[in-house]
Design brief:
The structure holds two protein chains of two kinds.
Chain A: H1 6-13, H2 17-39, H3 42-58, H4 70-87, H5 112-118, H6 121-129, H7 133-144, H8 149-156, H9 160-186
Helix pairs in contact in A: 1-2, 2-3, 2-4, 3-4, 7-9, 8-9
Chain B: H1 7-18, H2 27-36, H3 38-52, H4 65-82, H5 89-95, H6 100-122, E1 129-132, E2 134-135, E3 143-149, E4 154-160, E5 172-179, E6 186-190, E7 192-193, E8 199-205, E9 213-220, E10 231-236
Antiparallel strand pairs in B: 1-3, 2-10, 3-4, 4-8, 5-6, 5-9, 7-8, 9-10
Helix pairs in contact in B: 1-3
Classes of the chains: A mainly alpha, B alpha+beta.
Chain lengths: 188, 240
Amino acid sequence: MEHPEAGILDLLAQGSPEAIEFLYDRYGRIAFTVALRVLSDHAAAEDIVQEAFLSIWRRAMTYRPERGSLRNWICTIVRNRAIDRLRGESGRSRYELPFDEKPDEPDLSDTWTQVAAELGRQQIREALQQLPLEQRQTIELAYWSGLSQREIADNMRVPLGTVKGRARLALSKLRDVLQEREESWHAP
Amino acid sequence: MARAMKCAEAEELIALAVLGVLETSSSSDIEHHLSTCSHCRETARAYRRATSILPASLEPAKPSRELRRRIMTEVYSSARVDRPHRLTPGAIWRRVPQSRAFTVAALATGIAAVVLGVWGATQTPGAAQTFAVAATTNQPGAHGQLTYFPNSARAVLTVAGIDASSGSNAANVVEIWLVPHNGAPVPAAFLTPIPQTSTWTAVIAGDLLTYKMVAATTEPVGGRPSPTGPEIFSVALPQS
């Protein structure tokens, strides 16, 4: 599937300032929303968004235009930087899985971009609401708080194994919802 | 040495990893398992996708306008520094004739240029405007968008769904035209394919909002001063 933003990616790789302007106008708000969710501080969130977009701008020459899903890529960069800011000097290193794609690079390949774009905020909230409360709290704490798995277990007053199980069940159910949506996208 | 684990255990660690909370002590075990288990690699991919929707569940928050100005000022300033073809103050000075009259005039011009340059760098760039590509019967699958950046008077055209044989073979190119409200179309750019995609792109310079539309035709290699080939798509522009 061709990526609808390939032209912008190409310009970004060429170091065009208009490309970063375009990206900010399109994704600046979600980037700020992510940073604010992690940091709960308006000024600190703006600092993180500024750092993230300038980082994208400076890394533009190494960018590979054939890889896409810019929105997720930008959100990941902003979230990681915000959590690093939250953890500060005493923060722990983040382990990331060796996927087919590098975690800090976009995932572009199939109908996923279209499916993700089609899902509105309300639909995503409904999908999350379908999860049992303790599963939803587990993934939200893990994703947004910057706590370690053991800190999450302590916070929820459950054994570490329970945190692992809840995280797996929650993502498994979300996966099923999204796969159902993706299959309906393919349906005639 | 990595410890062997079953898929159920691996899936728990994958879930923690995509959420960003897996401790590094488990990394060799899970990496070893993923290197041998395609089922869990697919699970990892699916869990990453599931996690990626979480930002979209948030109530959107709005950053200040000042943030945009800060980012763009730094980006445009560094772009000016990084681009060697742009004139530096030193280069301008070396071009000034070394007579007193010319020097005084050049100094005045230079001060004005600096004032305008600083003013331009500190202004918030105008918001980009996006317009849709409209297909024609010659290329009914053409689709894409044109994004116009008013402050730099440049536009980025991105198009997909066009028949490459009409624009990429040895005989033809896709030429982009600016069509004025009155008068003949003006040649503006050539569409170029982006490697490893089926998308084509072009950067168009000019104050687009003074034109009626942007149009594309197939032309012989090298282009033509006015359109001769069939129109393959167009972009209507708003009246300024």
